[in-house]
Amino acid sequence: DTSATHLIQNGTNQFNRSGYQTGVSFDWEIKKKNNITGSLSYNYFGNNTTGITNRETILHDALGNSVSDVNNVIDASNNFNSKTFDWSLNYKRTFEKKDQGLDILYTASSSNNYSYYIQTQKFVSPDLIFNGSSGINPGTDKQTNISINYTHPIGKDFILETGAKTVLSQLSNTSNVYLLNPVSKNYDFNTAQSLAMNYSRSIYAGYLSATFKLFNFFDIKTGCRYEYTQTKTDFSNSGIANINPYGMFVPSGIISHTFKNNQTLKISYSHRIQRPDYRDLNTFINASDPKNITTGNPNLKPEISDNIELGYNKNFEKGTNINVVLFYRGNRDDIQQYTRYFPTYVIGDSTYSNVAISTRENIGLEDNFGMNIFVSVPITKKINLRSNLSGFQRLQNSRG
Fold it and tell me: Would you state the pLDDT for residue 372?
């Protein structure tokens, strides 16, 4: 014998978003060829969603007859805000020799993030609250970047660049979950569903690149960066999760040639890494909609992309400029939302029925092909007319 459950939902939501940013910076030439710059900024971003969802759950038996028909209402509210301080200090040293330079950069960021939801469920007839929960998720996201870059010309038309960089990230958050007691009408703290997480990531990188002429015809810039990443995650309910460290080579290259009449043809290739952010990694379980639960994934790997561009640029005598770019961008291990359906799903000491669990997974393959045409035409000495035309095709494939 088999049975089937049909879930029908409809509702309305109100979404509000706000944000602002401010900052200050300075530039100090401490002595000739020695310069220090610094900055401090503050950024606030927040959003809020409130809404009511009407839900009807119909259970059919093996013959298709309706066994039960239950109507209920979910009243839910979600809130998120992030307060971020960023600061930087940069030292630049130039030398008598042309193109020789030293650059030391320190940047840091500290964010306080806050997520909150509350939801209640009640029957339509009789008008009775039978379930509810709320979750509070304060967290911090701290990052420190230190980099040193040195440029040195070697002979004519040959420049060597080298450098090193360290990125230290620390993410921590606490997920406090409260379940509604229908008798007392209070939201009681739930130990089984609450947890704390500490996530740290250290990246160590070094690179070497060269700019030179080949056959006195091509202008070439090529290089390679090596990155080594260590990650550690500690959960209050399950202890330390072992995540294997990994190393990766990241090559890049540009080949160009300038023809007569101010025409340049260029082809470039780059291999890039895009690591997951705070909200992708956050394990906070948002059950504001008990039929559609969302959470993050601390085991996400970085996205890997390969980018190829072919560009043509033409400058005319009277100031008109035309730039045409054809590009391909291919992503693998693309981070995308992945939803699984479960007839029953246990979170802590609570069991959810007929629920969809959405999280983030490295399941995507994405290919982007496109073209961009930019034209700038001076109308007068003070007025320029600019036009931009873009077109692209995106092909996505998700595996699960």
Answer: 94
